[in-house]
Fold this protein.
Amino acid sequence: MYRFILLFALVGCAAPQAHGTLSSRTLEAAGDPLCSHRVPEKACVLHHPELTAEFKRLGDWCEEHSVPESQCLICHPDLTFDALPTLPESADLKWLAREGEAVGDLVPLAVKGKVTVFDFYADWCAPCRKVDLYMYGVLSRRTDVALRKLNVISWETPLAREQLKDAATLPHLIVVGRDGRVIKRMSGLDLPALEAAIAEGGS
Ligand SMILES: [Zn+2]
Ligand SMILES: [Zn+2]
């Protein structure tokens, strides 16, 4: 719970108890045209007040700004609603955990001869979307980079307890080089550092 509060603190949200969680309901409309509120028009509660009850039921509601947490650009300036690009067949992307299940030692799960990026994320993590957008771009261009995604779900799941004891926030990324060496562990959004770690891992 402490780290959950810390997450909100890091993204600049005061009074975390007034805030809900970000559900993936808004992202289901990702890639659709944005409305004047800069969210996908189809999911916008200001344009479609009838959706309000559904978001509240999901716990996805910012009381302070009266919009879904997953549409609150004041609390989450990192939100992005771009659709992820369609990946070519050659892209090396797999989910190691979809429901917060434990996975054990990560080292043998790294792909030999490739740079492997282990990506711990959750639907309620707005900056995790930016990692997706960046990594999908990398996977579209390169076959020597593997992305392994792990859905943490919450800080209380077996996966979080097993792998994220020292992680301050999400996204949490571990980059393993072609030779199996751990190049970098990082918590929080830092795309230049991720880019540098991938470059180092591939050299
Ligand atoms: Zn709108
Ligand atoms: Zn808000």
